[in-house]
Structures are given as structure tokens and as C-alpha cells.
Amino acid sequence: MRHSVKLTLLAVSVACIAASGGCMSERDSKALGEAITAPIAAMARSITDAQDLACTAAAFRRKNNRWPTDYAELSGFVEQTDGLLCLKQYDRVTFTSLPEDRFQIAFVPDGQTNELTIILETERCK
């Protein structure tokens, strides 16, 4: 997934350069490129954050045969792995058990305002 995000960023950058060749100042061209790539970069960071939480929660599930009850429990589990797993900082993380042994993680990455939600299914975490 990270590979496709990089290719998308590259394609957008090339398109911006080609579109602005000769008809915009360098400053305006740079500003346009940053305006276009900033949302894509934010989306890539969100995907990485979601993978971070999903992978650690799935590892917890495999080890303990249940989902973590809260972020503090997941963080404690991660600390016990001696660096094999890691978690980023989040402004808020909430866990919700769903029917059919599914698990919802809602989170706000550090320094951001939008809450993101992912749902994990036990069958995919085995």
C-alpha cells in the first residue's frame, strides 16, 4: 500500500511540473505542488497510523486470544515486546467490541483533529 501512495505522489508531482512549465513563477508552481500533495501526504500518514494500531491490536489478539480493553493495556503489551512492536502518540484512542468478534478502533493522531475509525475482524487476524 505504501508503494502505491509513493507512486501517486510522484505522478501528481510530475503532472504539476508539466502543467506549470513556463506559465507560472517558480514560487507559484511550488505553492501549487504543495497544495496538491499535502492532502495526499496526510492520507498516507493516516494509513500508516491505522496500520500501526491494527497490527499491534492483532498481535495482542493472537497472544491473548482476546482484544485489548483499552489503549493503556495495548501500550503495556507493546512495551513487553522489547521493541518488536511500537506505537505512535495519539491524542485519543477508543476501542469498541462489535458483534461477531469484530473490533473497532477510533483514534485521533497526535496533532490532528479528525477522528479515524478502523474495524478489525478476528478471521483476518489469525
Topology (SSEs and partners):
Elements (H helix, E strand, L loop, with lengths): L1 H19 L5 H39 L6 H9 L10 E9 L3 E8 L6 E6 L5
Antiparallel strand pairs: 1-2, 2-3
User: How many E-type strands?
Assistant: 3
Strands side by side in the biggest sheet: 1-2-3
Structural class: alpha+beta
Q: What percentage of amino acids are in beta strands?
A: 15-25%
Helix content: 40-55%
Keywords:
alpha+beta; three-stranded antiparallel beta sheet; 3 helices; elongated
Structure write-up:
- The chain is of the alpha+beta class and 126 residues long.
- It has one domain.
- 53% of the residues lie in helices and 18% in strands.
- The protein is built from three helices and three strands, in the order αααβββ.
- It has helices spanning 2-20, 26-64, 71-79, and strands spanning 90-98, 102-109, 116-121.
- It has a three-stranded antiparallel β-sheet with strand order 1-2-3, with helices on one face.
- A hairpin with a 6-residue loop joins strand 2 and strand 3.
- Helix 1 (2-20) runs antiparallel to helix 2 (26-64).
- The longest helix is centred in the middle third of the chain and has 39 residues, at 26-64.
- The radius of gyration is 19 Å and the shape is elongated.
- The two termini are 21 Å apart.
- The mean pLDDT is 77.
Summarize the structure.
The chain is α+β, with helices and mostly antiparallel strands and about 130 residues long. The protein has helices at about 1-20, 25-65, 70-80, and strands spanning about 90-100, 100-110, 115-120.
